[in-house]
Amino acid sequence: MGKWWQEEVVYQIYPRSFQDSNGDGIGDIPGIISRLDEIKALGVGIIWLSPVYKSPDADNGYDISDYMDINPKFGTMADMERLFKEAKARGIRIIMDLVINHTSDEHKWFQESRDKDSPYRDYYIWRPGRMGGKLPPNNWTGFFMGSTWEYDEKSGEYYLHLFDKKQPDLNYHNPKVLNEVKEILRFWLDKGAAGFRCDVINVIYKTSLKDGKPAVAIRGLEHYKSQEGNHRILKELRKDVLSKYDCFTVGETVMVDLDEAKLLCEPEREELDMVFYFDHLEVDRRVARYVPKKFKAKKLLEVLAKWQRGLSWNAVYLENHDQPRIVSHYGDEGKYWARSAKMLATLLLTLKGTPYIYQGQEIGMTNFDYPDMSSLDDVESKNVYKLMRKLQIPAKTAWDWIRMSSRDNARTPMQWSQEEGAGFTTGTPWLPINGNYKEINYQDQHEVNGSVYRFYQRMIAFRAGNETLKYGEFVPLFGDDDTIVYAREGGGEHLVVALNFSPEQKEIPLEGEVLISNTGRSEYDGKLGPYESIVMRH
Ligand code: TEU
Ligand code: CA
């Protein structure tokens, strides 16, 4: 037995797309409460709630204007308290999304900060421009494209924003900022939060503001990624606040390598408990995730082996609100849709670490089916599209790449049923529902033995009852273009997992007793079918 956050499976909710309760087309907290029984039935023990705080929604809540209040679109603080209570009554813990690299420009700290003489001035990073103010203070470019600096008329200076210009970065050289963050943590922990998913947590401390070295994208990174000052902050938050509660943290860590991750989450460091890294979702991508290249299963195995063996514990995930749907990415949307979704469930739930399932993943939801850019909402997709066009990438190619990688792929409303509005809303959804909701929805799958949903449920229960799957060592055994085989070893047990990422049958000689497979077979004959997955005891 490990810690509770190692035993449990986490379910990520993106509130605006989960369940609408009042017909305004936007998911909300009462909607989440009404679905807690369904979440429980899947077998998960922890919910990660994407931001529900007050926000002008320039980046869908990742731009917070009040950390201690609820976005009225989602409900009230009383609703939030009821959510904690109702979840607890079902044995479900909730972790909050902690976005502290930046606030919204509509946060009162920032509004005050625009005045040079305000005590809030140093809450943010203000600098005069170069060339008499005509050029930004340095050459950095941000995560959402373009300069990281925005000129503010009122103060005659520029402020730093690694993300959108409506997301000004906080200044962690100012100890007052960290004290505010500690108050925020205590506020939510006292209300019942069981921890935090910490947004872009490895870039919060900017060591210097010198020019960045030449880079295709995101210039300036070397001055703020995984800095010593960042580690100091994490240690302080842990020591002064988090260690006083029964909670855990998972850090979203942009562009980390394994060595940086070790420093962020190995237990003896007393910083974070685990991190989200991205390498395993980018084996078929160039330049972050927007330009495609050929998928090779062997490459995926290499990445997995490195991370699985490199850390004593970590988060494992295949989807979140920033990523395309995994069945559309590493699986098949056509003939082998269900089977490939189950194969990917097998992968997720046979890795070592705390598994995270993103809403809709458990029913095999696919990427959006929009005809063009006009249906999209995501600020990043819009900026990336603009940039691609500026770089003379043909409109058709740009659209293909957006379609493949847009964050809106994950953000289409949850498909609950065949009803009008997919059981998500009785009104007009804030983002169009995928037209396939009549074929892919929770209610149908819930009732059908052998569905993707039922398979997730089975795999979660299977993991829960198997110590080797939870804590055993990960051993890579074999990989080629289409298939991977690995073992999980521990406590005298030896499990072998074989996965086929192709629509072709593959010959893979293996022996053992089949424990679980996505085709329902009970014996293995050396031939792995299209998108087949098997778990065997050797
Ligand atoms: O994302 C951080 C991040 O850098 C990427 O995932 C980002 O979305 C993009 O893919 C970079 O190319 C986190 C949140 O998950 C995301 O929703 C927010 O937009 C972002 O931080 C800013 O808060
Ligand atoms: Ca609503």
- Quote the distance from N terminus to C terminus: 23 Å
% residues in beta strands? 15-25%
> Can you list the ligands bound to this structure?
1-O-alpha-D-glucopyranosyl-D-fructose, calcium ion
Share of helix among residues?
25-40%
Provide a count of the helices: 16
Count every beta strand, where a strand is a DSSP E run of 2 or more residues: 22
Main beta-sheet annotation: 8 strands, parallel
Q: Structural class, please?
A: alpha/beta
Radius of gyration: 23 Å
Describe the structure.
This protein has 538 residues and is of the alpha/beta class. The protein contains 16 helices and 22 strands. The chain has helices spanning 4-7, 29-34, 36-42, 77-89, 108-113, 175-191, 228-240, 258-265, 297-310, 326-329, 337-349, 379-390, 395-405, 442-447, 452-464, 467-471, and strands spanning 10-13, 46-49, 53-54, 66-70, 93-98, 126-127, 149-152, 157-160, 195-198, 248-252, 274-276, 285-286, 291-292, 315-317, 354-358, 473-479, 483-490, 493-500, 506-507, 513-517, 527-528, 533-537. The strands form six sheets. The chain has an eight-stranded parallel sheet with strand order 11-10-9-5-2-1-15-14. Strands 16-17-18-22-20 form a five-stranded antiparallel sheet. The protein has a three-stranded antiparallel sheet with strand order 6-8-7, with no helix packed on it. The model has no long low-confidence stretch (mean pLDDT 97). The structure holds 1-O-alpha-D-glucopyranosyl-D-fructose and calcium ion (CA). Calcium ion binds at residues 20-22, 24, 26, 28. 1-O-alpha-D-glucopyranosyl-D-fructose is lined by residues 59, 62, 99, 143, 163, 199-200, 252, 254, 288, 321-322, 380.
